Amino acid sequence: MTYSLTIFKSIFHNKTNNRLDLSDWASFERMLYKLSKRPGKKAKKGERPTDDVSPLISPAVYTPDSTRANNNVIEWAGWAALDVDNCEVSLEEALKPYRQYYFVCYSTASSTVEKPKFRLVFPLTSAVPNKDIRHFWYALNKHFNSMGDEQTKDLSRMYYVPAQYPNAHNFIFTNTGKFIDPRSEEHTSELQSLAYLVCRLLLEKK
């Protein structure tokens, strides 16, 4: 299976022509670890990015010659990510719901020892087509006790790469387990539960 990512030079960059296709998950994982050793820099709000700002990556594959917009997303190409920014327990405790799955966990630029902030990158057994992405993300997040930042549900969401960010508690490690199957009965049941809830709320409003 091919694992693809679209690379953006900064948060202001919206051209989608810089795509990298990797033939297996091991290659994708090695890339993350290689990036994690490099110096990192995140552009501050209101600050124009410089050449030393860390790039961002997205699981989205876009239509040719398009810009970064939800309508231009074809699919998520074999991986998904959750951001955990409000961790009120230890890192070990926070990761318990995820332990049966394979993931790469790496710190974000604002992570500290006292309050770790991290990203979980999950390999999938198949790509997720555009029409299913939002529902898949909600099902995935709900399955993991809704710990993920809801901003990451965006189809064209991009993420800063792992790096050695200044004044941050930097880390990266791998948890081995099963790959998530977007079409599995487990996640399908989550979607059915969500659909039932939405229908019930609509009926209550009538």
**Portion in beta strands:** 15-25%
**Widest sheet, order of strands:** 2-1-3-10
| Helical residue percent band | 10-25%
Order of helices and strands: EEHEEEEHEEEHEEH
What integer value in Å does the Rg equal?
Answer: 17 Å
Task: Explain the overall architecture.
It is a single chain. With 206 residues, this protein is of the alpha+beta class. It is built from four helices and eleven strands. The protein has helices at 25-36, 91-94, 130-143, 185-205; strands spanning 3-8, 19-22, 56-58, 60-62, 73-76, 79-84, 103-107, 118-123, 128-129, 159-160, 172-175. A four-stranded antiparallel sheet has the order 2-1-3-10. Strands 6-8-7-11 form a four-stranded antiparallel sheet, with helices on one face. The longest helix has 21 residues, at 185-205.
Give a quick precis of the structure.
With 206 residues, the chain is an alpha+beta fold. Helices cover 25% and strands 22% of the residues. The C terminus is likely disordered.
Which characteristics define this entry?
four-stranded antiparallel sheet, disordered C terminus, 206 residues, 11 strands, alpha+beta
List the helices and strands and how they pair.
Layout: E1 3-8, E2 19-22, H1 25-36, E3 56-58, E4 60-62, E5 73-76, E6 79-84, H2 91-94, E7 103-107, E8 118-123, E9 128-129, H3 130-143, E10 159-160, E11 172-175, H4 185-205
Antiparallel strand pairs: 1-2, 1-3, 3-10, 4-5, 5-9, 6-8, 7-8, 7-11
Helix pairs in contact: 3-4
